[in-house]
Amino acid sequence: DPVTVGSLWLWHSSGSHNGKAEGTFQVTMLPGDGVGPELMHAVKEVFKAGNVPVTFDEHHLSEVQNTASEEKLDRVVDSMKESKVALIGKIHTPMEYKGDLASYDMRLRRKLDLFANVVHVKSLPGYQTRHNNLDLVIIREQTEGEYSSLEHESVKGVIECLKIITRAKSQRIAKFAFDYATKKGRAKVTAVHKANIMKLGDGLFLQCCKEVAELYPKIKFDTMIIDNCCMQLVQNPYQFDVLVMPNLYGNIVDNLAAGLVGGAGVVPGESYSAEYAVFELVRRGSPRGTVPNLPVRAGILGGLEYHSNMVSDAVKKVIKGGKVRTRDLGGYSTTSDFVKSVIDNLHPHYGA
């Protein structure tokens, strides 16, 4: 059976030789801002061409387009309660303070308790970068830490921004990381921290990781200070396997690591709670003419293993061929060109 992480793959098979799924699966979709709608359109085009049995329940939630409200956020949550799976584009968060510190993106994560963010950084065959054959996973806790939205001006000109670290959530993300490593056949988990300076906050996170590590004797465990981790990722990223860390560190490190294999357009992100799975861009500011690699991960929506492999193989064939390269990968092709090439490379019996 397909490996499950937190019982999140809604895997379903007809039992036939080709592993095609029966029925139609609903997936919540949030196109978002910027390149988001373009990439969501790309996903729909590829899924349509591949006869992927998925229907999208589309919702528009955007602070910059004035389509965000508590009522619309509640509708998204209601949709998620039914579908359990979502695909979201870039949701831009304005820097201006307008009376509410928590963005709608953060509110959605909290309402769904999307505590674990997973970024699989893997080199693409046929696309050469400074470091090739990379394969590492960055896991971060994303419901607390520096993104607590607890800020205030204690006295004029002095802002206090609270970083929240709790034992319960630190243990939960550590267990998630070790479970992931176990189920995916990974050999090592590295806890990334700054406990030498933040002795209580990061110290608690590090202690929780150490305690959980003792329960997984077959998985090697080590620790690394965040600043050294960034340097090591640039110098020798091959030493890493699975990395687990608090919120802000993970947000920075997964963008750094994405740059090692080609940029934001080729590294999708995944967020999980005990019930839900959300697939998204790893970085919020992807350039236009971006490789729509979302279909690679989106193919596993609903646990559609057969369709996932077909879509993923088609995307990889286009990249490996090297003839259709979007601007973020050094070429001149548009996202539409890339999508057309992916569709042309779909398995000839796809959806038959």
From TrEMBL:
Stated name of the protein: Isocitrate dehydrogenase (NAD(+)) 3 non-catalytic subunit beta
Superkingdom to which the source organism belongs: Eukaryota
Similarity comment: Belongs to the isocitrate and isopropylmalate dehydrogenases family.
Keyword annotations of the record: Mitochondrion, Transit peptide, Tricarboxylic acid cycle
Keyword Transmembrane helix applies: no
Pfam families the record matches: Iso_dh
Gene Ontology MF: a single term: oxidoreductase activity, acting on the CH-OH group of donors, NAD or NADP as acceptor
SMART domains for this protein: Iso_dh
A biological process from GO: isocitrate metabolic process
Subcellular location: Mitochondrion
Domain Isopropylmalate dehydrogenase-like positions: 26-342
GO cellular component annotations of the record: mitochondrion
Keyword Mitochondrion in record: yes
Subunit-level organization: Heterooligomer of subunits alpha (IDH3A), beta (IDH3B), and gamma (IDH3G) in the apparent ratio of 2:1:1. The heterodimer containing one IDH3A and one IDH3B subunit and the heterodimer containing one IDH3A and one IDH3G subunit assemble into a heterotetramer (which contains two subunits of IDH3A, one of IDH3B and one of IDH3G) and further into the heterooctamer.
